[in-house]
Amino acid sequence: MTEFTLPPKPKKTAWQKMRPYLIGIILLAIYIWTFSSIEIRWSRVFSQHTVESLTRVIPQLFSPDWSAFGKVMGLMWETLLMAYTGTLMAAILAVPFGFFAASNMVKNKFLNTASKWALNAIRAFPELVLALMFVAAVGPRPFAGVIAIAIGSIGMLGKLYSEVIESIDMNVVEALEANGANKLQVLFYGIIPQIIPEFLSYAIYRFEIDVRASTILGIIGAGGIGTLITIATTNRNWSEVGLILVVIIAVVTLIDIVSAQIRKRLV
Amino acid sequence: MIEFKDISLVYPNGTQGLKNVNIQINPGEFVVVVGLSGAGKSTLIRSINRLVTPTHGELLIDQENILNYRARDLRKLRTKVGMIFQNYNLVKRSSVMKNVISGRLGYTGTLRSLFNLYPKEDMALAYRSLERVNISEKLYQRSDQLSGGQQQRVAIARVLTQQPNIILADEPVASLDPPTSHQVMTYLRKVNKEDHITTIVNLHFIDMAMEYADRIIGMRAGEVVYDGPVSEVCEATFEEIYGRKIRDEDRVGGSDDA
């Protein structure tokens, strides 16, 4: 039996050999720099004070105050409605963005790139920042939160929509054009049947994200359960905070499960 | 009648798709275009409904040069020229009926078609087309639930619903197994004979070309290198068209059990 030998490996240049070590050193330097600049005062973290507040707060968090249940559920419902309205607005408004940003639909390079950039620009704003702006503009009410959710979601949905459109089977479009269909007919017979399930699936997924996002928005006065979190924490009413957390976790989990089920059936 | 008058086509990237093609195809003929892949078969038949546009020459259909056609004329031309593709190109998530009725889109106003308001005769025509390719029982199924051969039959029904004068088939059996291939070709020929629809089919299997064609056009490197009735074609002709010896893979086989 002859011994089998692999062909020799290609020679590495000095740079290729050095590169992994260099990357390691740079990463290490960044860690050291960040930890040294945030100035953690370990003596305060492990002080008597911390231990005392923890022993006071944590047991209260774990004994939720069920007497506030009605109030909390009412605001949770408002939170869900905010997320629903915001997502619905975005799911519809993102459709034209998706088409304009899809390179197989809009052949005009300028329009195409401009829409892609617009979507990127929208996505650069966190919901909280958008909500701050709208609270300032329309006042501290749920409407501000709805608009913030809607605009924040357009960025992501528009981008995902455009990717769905770019991945459709263009041969079907060609076939419809080849039997004399006009542009609108091609849209309704060839394109929409291909994209509807994915569009819905992404919109539902975004609703999940928006429910989580809108629980926070109330903290800055944009409506929903977040308002109650602020009030309860400033009053150090930890057992109510505990209840709010329980409700949020339960509702978000429920919505995740339901949405996953629906999405599995759609595609 | 379809006439190619000195047609050439150069793609934007510089590839020569067609080179000085001069052919005439008579009404009701069943023409098979053969050649290796890249020989220009697809370009030739896609020129006839202007999915690609030749860059030189004249292409006459019933004495009219279709190369001058713009949007509206083009759609009118395409309603009269049906096309069948290698990958069937059905809308997979739509029902068989919806796919077949889409053959009427060129005849139907935009609003009517968006709200599915087809005249009764059109629905009847669509159903009859499905019956003609023996697949009417699948009417309400989603088309992605059908097998490849069934999908191609639905594609034929869609074309029939167009009531075309010409049917173009671009490698219609290249994704099918031999028995199914023969079935699909048999339906194509039946339609050609019964309705006198001029039919132009791209194939690369020589035995299949011999079995179904009235006339064979051979292409190599964008040029028509052979054109004649099937009775005059023999294996040497194909060797000339392909520019090499005939191999086993050039035959599909299975014609007897079709």
Q: What do you see in this structure?
A:
The complex is a heterodimer of chains A (267) and B (258). Chain A is mainly alpha-helical and 267 residues long. Chain A has a single domain, classed as Orthogonal Bundle (MetI-like fold). Chain A has 11 helices and no strands. Chain A is extended and about 75 Å long. The termini of chain A are far apart. In chain A, 33% of the residues are buried. With 258 residues, chain B is of the alpha/beta class. Chain B is built from 9 helices and 10 strands. In chain B, a hairpin with a 5-residue loop joins strand 1 and strand 2. The radius of gyration of chain B is 18 Å and the shape is globular. Helices cover 34% and strands 23% of the residues of chain B. Chains A and B meet through helix 8 and helix 9 of A and helix 2, strand 6 and helix 4 of B.
Just give the CATH class of the largest domain in chain B.
Alpha Beta
Order of helices and strands of chain A: HHHHHHHHHHH
The biggest sheet of chain B amounts to:
6 strands, mixed
The CATH topology of the largest domain in chain B corresponds to: Rossmann fold
Number of domains of chain A: 1
**Amount of helix of chain B:** 25-40%
CATH level-3 fold name of chain A: MetI-like fold
Any guess at the CATH architecture of the largest domain in chain B?
3-Layer(aba) Sandwich
What is the strand arrangement across the widest sheet of chain B?
A: 6-7-8-3-9-10
Short description:
Chain A has 267 residues and is an all-alpha fold.
Key traits:
heterodimer; A: 267 residues; mainly alpha; MetI-like fold; extended; B: 258 residues; alpha/beta; Rossmann fold; 2 domains; four-stranded antiparallel beta sheet; 34% helix; globular
